[in-house]
Request: fold
Amino acid sequence: MKKLFPIIAFIAVALISMVMAGFAYFATQEAARIKFEATADDALNRIESRIDLHLSLLRSTQALFDARNGDISRNEFKAFFNALDVDKNFAGLRGIGFLRLAKTGDEATVERDMLHDYGVSHPIYPDTTQPWRTPIVLFEPLDPSNQAAIGYDMFSEPMRRVAIEKAMSDDQQHASGLVQLGQDTGASQTFTGFFVFVRLNVETAPDVINASRSSTSGFLYAAFRARDLFQTALSRSPLLPVNTEIYDGDGAVSGDNLLFRSETPPASTFGDRLLVTRKIIVAGRPWTVLFRPTSAFSQPSSRAIPVMLGLFGLLLAGAIALVARYQERAYEAASRLHETTEKSLIEKDLMLQEMKHRIKNSITRVLAIARQTASRATDVNEFSASFSARLQAMAASQDMLTRSRWQKADLGDLLRIELGQVFGKELPEGLLSGPQVLLDETTTQALGLTFHELATNALKYGEAGNSVGALKVDWSLEGRGRDRTLALNWRENGQKKLEAPAETGFGTKLIDLNVTRELRGTIKRDYQANGLNVEIKIPLAN
Reply:
């Protein structure tokens, strides 16, 4: 407990200080968030109030048409619009118009009426395959830049058509998505904006079918320039320290559906920490509004307070821990020395036990190989040569494991060493191919002997005795994780026709025992007219 006292004291005092600093920091952040949300809501109220004012103008125009049952001449509509003083009272409104509803094929009647009203022919355009036509027959202000709009069929454009179809089904106002005003009519200047449509009804005669219901004669619409509309709403005094982005729709926000972005950029110091997102419905159309603070936004309290509190707490905790640390230094030094000694003794004992185990396994393997080699040898020279070669194969595997501190051995390196002992150290290019595979101690020793025996048989009986190029070895890994399997193919090609031996020698038995029993794998031999194919598969531990 004495040893841990400086740490405990430091952690306790520092934790208390950090908790207090954290509370102070989060209180500061929460106050800033609440203040900015109130500012953002104020900006949103300004936007909604301005939009409601403009939509009320469309409702007033609808009331005028309803009072006259849709029978409004061009001059009457112009006089009504001029009386509104739009430039002064309705900034952002590009104009108000009337769309005549007609079935496709009845364009001539509408064009004749426009010729009567304007004294100039206005053909309905563009061509369309839609069942309805909604050409613009009235629009104010009808300045030279808007003359080309007369006769334009809004039902031909998909974004506007969706809003018009919704307006057909009820008496509510319906906004379109984002459009470029003037683009379709060939105007010299275009603006990002939107439309709001509402249908106009005329009472049908009593002898007409469904006379109890009103029929749609057309649609009133208002065109809005987004930038002028929202800038006017947000520029009202006092100016709010917010950067505003308005997107059409309630889904993902991107440049493709951006209606408006404030000219004043957001303050980079806040990032998106104070980002406020609001969803509003404008004439049945959802919008997403994002508010970020600008550099003019001031937080209700200083951020330096929690920083200073945290630094003071850390200094205090450090001072307390330092004093306790000096008092316990001698004890800690003795304790570390004792721990180091104990650890060294334990590691030494583990190394001795591991060495005993490995020496015992090696001796057992050597004795088994010696007995089996002796049982098959015809004389001392044959025994000496075979036994020495197998011991060299074991020694090569042991050497690789020793150099890797008994961790892992590379399969490719193991093959090069074992084949080099049999065929010579200079092996031709392309003899071996496959990915890097790291083998553990048991797999390395077993495969080392296996490769030695396969190489010895190839040298004695196969074409590889004449040319080592007749031998090809490739491998791959199959499966993942705990199901990984090493698949190795040993191919001997040449002119010699190899046949399965009548009796199984010790080398073949040693190969089979290493693969099937020790490594729990499989081995298949395919004797062919031009050589031998050996396929070995063994599971690999993680």
The radius of gyration is 45 Å. Residues 235 and 479 are 66 Å apart (CA to CA). The chain has a mean pLDDT of 81.
